[in-house]
Design goal:
Length: 185
């Protein structure tokens, strides 16, 4: 059995729910208290469209004081979740800078990315759906509305990113780090 590995990087401003999304996917658990992340790494094996995939997920620091670390993890990532909170206009505006930095670090304008609008369960929304759709279209990347708290569309966000990476790999004719595993039945 061949297992494809995907290095996914979760980026966005502090407090937008990057860790909450990641932990919801990995442990199906929502963390109420906010504890700023410096950098955490998680691995999870999933099946997406019949293919077994190993997700290597890097949950990054959103705080500006850790911005020096960004170039390094951006160079190593296969795909990126650009996360913002629907109740935080500044975090939405920061997505452009994250996107630009990723493209600069990867030296490419065709990097697999998915824009994630998190915290859609909250009653106060300062970023409109029209703004999100407009940015998604301008950047040429899909967007997904999620709630880490409710667990809605979290898996879909990560799986969509894996499919974006797989599509680019097929187009380039590359298979990244297949792992052969023995299966005894």
């Amino acid at each position: 059995m061949v297992i494809e590995e995907y290095k996914l990087v979760v980026v966005g401003d502090g407090g937008v729910g990057k860790s909450a999304l990641t932990l919801r996917l990995i442990q199906n658990h929502f963390v109420e208290e906010y504890d700023p992340t410096i950098e955490d790494s998680y691995r999870k094996q999933v099946v997406i469209e019949g293919n077994t995939c190993l997700l290597d997920i890097l949950d990054t620091a959103g705080q500006e004081e850790y911005s020096a670390m960004r170039d390094q993890y951006m160079r190593g990532g296969d795909g990126f979740l650009l996360v913002f909170a629907v109740n935080d206009t500044n975090s939405f505006q920061s997505i452009a800078a994250f996107r630009d930095q990723i493209m600069r670090c990867k030296d490419s304008d065709d990097v697999p990315m998915v824009m994630v609008c998190n915290k859609v369960d909250l009653p106060t929304k300062t970023v409109s759906l029209r703004e999100i759709q407009s940015a998604s279209q301008a950047y040429g990347i899909p967007f997904i509305q999620t709630s880490a708290k409710a667990g809605s569309n979290v898996e879909k966000a990560f799986h969509t990113l894996v499919l974006e990476v797989a599509k680019r790999r097929r187009a380039a004719g590359i298979k990244k780090k297949p792992k052969k595993r023995c299966c005894i039945q």
